[in-house]
Amino acid sequence: MPAAAAHYHILLLGLLLVSRPCFAANDTLAAGQALAVGDTLVSRNGKFALGFFSSGNITESESSSSSDNNSTTTNWYLGIWFNKIPVFTPVWIANRDEPFTDPDNDLKLKIRLEIARDGNLVVLDDIGGANKTVVWSSEITNASKNSNDTVALLTHTGNLVIQHATDPSQVWWQSFDYPTDVYLPESKLGRNKITGLNRVFVSWKNRIDPARGSYCVGVDARFNQGIILYHCASSVVFWASGTFTQPNVDPGDSGLTSYNGVDNSEEQYYIYTTPNESISLLTSVEVTGQIKGRVWVESRQAWRVFYTQPMEPCNVHAVCGPFTVCSSNDNANLSCDCMEGFSIKSPGDWDLDDHSGGCTRNDPLDCATDKFLPVPGVSLPYSPVPMKAADADDCRQVCASDCSCTAYSYTSSACSVWNGGLLNTAASTTAGGDILYLRISAKDLQALRDNKKGSYVGVVIAASIAGSGTIVLLLLFIIVWRRNRDCGLQSSTTQDAAGIRTFRYSYLRHATKNFSERLGGGGFGSVYKGLLSDSITTIAVKRLDGARQGEKQFRAEVSSIGLIQHINLVKLIGFCCESDKRLLVYERMLNGSLDAHLFNTSNDDGTVLDWSTRCQIATGVARGLSYLHEGCRECIIHCDIKPENILLDASFVPKIADFGMAAIVGRDFSRVLTTFRGTVGYLAPEWISGGAITQKVDVYSFGMVLLEIVSGRRNSPEVYTTSSFHISYFPVQAISMLHAGDVSSLVDPQLHGDFSLEEAIRVCKVAFWCIQENEFDRPTMGEVVRALEGLHELDMPPMPRQFAAITKCLLSVVH
Ligand SMILES: *[C@@H]1O[C@H](CO)[C@@H](O)[C@H](O)[C@H]1NC(C)=O
Ligand SMILES: *[C@@H]1O[C@H](CO)[C@@H](O)[C@H](O)[C@H]1NC(C)=O
Ligand SMILES: *[C@@H]1O[C@H](CO)[C@@H](O)[C@H](O)[C@H]1NC(C)=O
Ligand SMILES: *[C@@H]1O[C@H](CO)[C@@H](O)[C@H](O)[C@H]1NC(C)=O
Ligand SMILES: *[C@@H]1O[C@H](CO)[C@@H](O)[C@H](O)[C@H]1NC(C)=O
Ligand SMILES: *[C@@H]1O[C@H](CO)[C@@H](O)[C@H](O)[C@H]1NC(C)=O
Ligand SMILES: *[C@@H]1O[C@H](CO)[C@@H](O)[C@H](O)[C@H]1NC(C)=O
Ligand SMILES: *[C@@H]1O[C@H](CO)[C@@H](O)[C@H](O)[C@H]1NC(C)=O
Ligand SMILES: *[C@@H]1O[C@H](CO)[C@@H](O)[C@H](O)[C@H]1NC(C)=O
Description:
Elements: H1 2-17, E1 28-30, E2 34-36, E3 40-42, E4 48-54, H2 55-60, E5 76-82, E6 90-93, E7 111-115, E8 121-128, E9 131-137, E10 150-154, E11 160-164, E12 171-174, E13 182-183, E14 188-192, E15 198-199, E16 201-204, E17 212-219, E18 227-231, E19 236-240, E20 258-263, E21 267-273, E22 281-285, E23 291-297, E24 302-309, E25 324-329, E26 333-338, E27 342-344, H3 347-351, E28 359-361, E29 371-379, E30 385-387, H4 392-400, E31 405-411, E32 414-419, E33 426-427, E34 434-440, H5 442-466, H6 469-483, E35 493-495, E36 501-503, H7 505-511, E37 518-522, E38 525-531, E39 538-544, H8 547-560, E40 572-578, E41 581-587, H9 594-599, H10 611-631, E42 635-637, E43 646-648, E44 654-656, E45 663-665, H11 685-689, H12 696-711, E46 718-720, E47 726-728, H13 730-739, H14 757-770, H15 781-788, H16 801-814
Keywords: ATP-binding, Cell membrane, Disulfide bond, EGF-like domain, Glycoprotein, Kinase, Lectin, Membrane, Nucleotide-binding, Phosphoprotein, Receptor, Serine/threonine-protein kinase, Signal, Transferase, Transmembrane, Transmembrane helix
GO molecular function: ATP binding; carbohydrate binding; protein serine/threonine kinase activity
Subcellular location: Cell membrane
């Protein structure tokens, strides 16, 4: 209580000390008068008011009441605003960069505007007693020196003028010469060639802070570009009106303004008028870097934008800051997104529409181990540095070897690199766009992959809960739509951040040269070779035939592989779903499928997969399956693992393909798959016995494939009738040989003994554990990976029960 009382006394003291003249609405401030908080000068037409206002008045007019009452100090400003308009709209601020503040928040009782003895207009802060501090001054050097001759007048155009009390032709200062962000009718934009005064309009720092921001509007030095809009700090001009010196130009064809350019010996400027003084209208440079013309609509009690330049918000230089991708919907709302691996540098500023800080790396770069992340579907950043490079790999090398290089692109055989912050990367508004390869740390890349797993799993779960494939597809389309608001399915190709693209049929027809180069085919359709419009990505396009089966396979494929990515899973680049056309687009694998390399002994070049390549393939496939089964929260069962569905890229890295039979099931594996899936020879016994189907069916099939990789021959039973009647089923022979310790004779004879016996034994053990009849005896794919890598010792597998039966049967046949 005593503290409050003391406070009250100080307030009273303040009131007594400031001798306040009676102040009615008036447009003139004369010597000896003072304007305190709450007082205003009002222009004679009543349109404009001058006085003090606080940051509270700005946030108050914000539609969102996000104003935090926790800010310890209130900022106060001297300014001019529209007097009759209920939405607080300042048009000039004297002290935008240096607000008047007071920690006690009672400053409003102590600041006042008056004419100083030297004829300057000043804001004084009464510290106490007779002490006064000048906190703002008009800083006129040629003032009258006699305050009795000086008045400050607020004109009907919103101009605060310091002039001679009785001779209005003597003007010492005017607010129109020191503009803020608002270009009012009748004010000048441009320079005085003699005094050097240059009237430049500067945007606010953010939605609620009027301090100088990033964007400037002025005239260019040679006065031949018209009004120019530029990034103040870098002077990068990103819009110009074009020159005009004839009167009555209305740039927006709104009928509301009439511009005139003036270029004479003394001045170069633009000025505009409105047809009617009763119209309230302004032109301003926005926080977003656009110039906007607004007119007050009385009937709606709101400002209407009648003019915007540049129309496309992403054309504003550096609008989203470094390491961002800019996008906009219908040229309307700006949206800034951090590139992957980056986070918003200053979320507080970002929320207030100040994106200039952009995004920062989640983890610092380490030149030696950095990776490149493709950022597809963009228009490339500002100021590329062209480089000589033979091909895309060479271009990547150029960037990788320069630690300051942050990105590269290889487009139309041209290599470009960037250093620094990658400004102005925008989501491409035309079909396709370019691919930017962004340098990020290996750690961030990994985090991204893990993260992707997570986010896609959500979709998979939702999809599997929904149960219906149609809904899965719908969800996927929604994702693609939401991420490609400007193109969606309408354009020729689109791509979302995950890399899934939707293609138009006509585009794919063109890319595959009218489906002329057939790579292969299966039950559901044919696969064709194609080339994307970037001229470097070769693709395999699967065209599904047979309306019903095709549709089913299409859905299974898109909803499983479409949502996940792994080095050992074939990458679904996109799909086409147009009327009855169903096409799937994959990255093309140079070395085709595994079966061709294992079994086609008579194949043209006669090359044999060497042992280490076989091991690489075995572990790769195991990793891919392990990821499908365990990497996602929902289990994806491939259901059709066989050499035909294992593709090999240029360096024989295996990729699991053909997810047409895949099933997404819950973690509890309780779901029973009713439809028969898979290929005879690789089918787990539970398919036939009608047991519950789990991911262990893939383990079984993988075991069968492992045996084929080792032996280079099919597991399928063969009947020899040459010398004696004899049935051979390789797995049965193999397990006997394994038990007998004779593994070398199991291994593909084409290797001519060039293999590691230890590894061969390990692989065979794994294989036989995988093909145990009881699914609970089979290892998980994770265990398989560890076993293949030698990290996990395996016992000698028992003879699988079904084999024992087969052996018995064979013996009975023979005898
Ligand atoms: C406005 O102020 C001037 C100067 O103090 C004074 O001469 C004039 O009478 C005032 N007008 C009104 C309407 O109060
Ligand atoms: C600013 O806000 C205060 C408190 O809400 C109000 O009294 C004052 O009239 C406002 N000033 C302007 C210029 O709107
Ligand atoms: C903010 O201030 C308002 C009134 O001034 C009060 O009702 C509200 O509780 C305050 N909020 C916080 C978080 O202090
Ligand atoms: C408000 O300010 C107090 C004291 O400075 C601080 O402890 C508190 O966390 C702030 N609250 C919010 C919501 O910012
Ligand atoms: C006024 O200023 C003088 C000199 O700057 C200083 O000695 C005095 O304490 C001040 N008075 C108050 C009330 O602040
Ligand atoms: C200004 O006018 C006041 C009273 O009107 C007078 O006392 C003062 O001397 C004058 N100042 C000058 C510099 O003429
Ligand atoms: C004072 O200087 C300004 C420009 O600096 C000029 O526009 C104005 O006419 C000058 N006023 C007088 C009274 O000389
Ligand atoms: C323009 O001014 C005239 C009077 O000069 C008035 O009748 C008319 O309504 C005004 N037009 C607008 C759009 O305010
Ligand atoms: C743009 O954003 C504003 C406010 O956030 C919203 O009212 C408006 O509907 C949006 N416009 C479009 C085209 O989305």
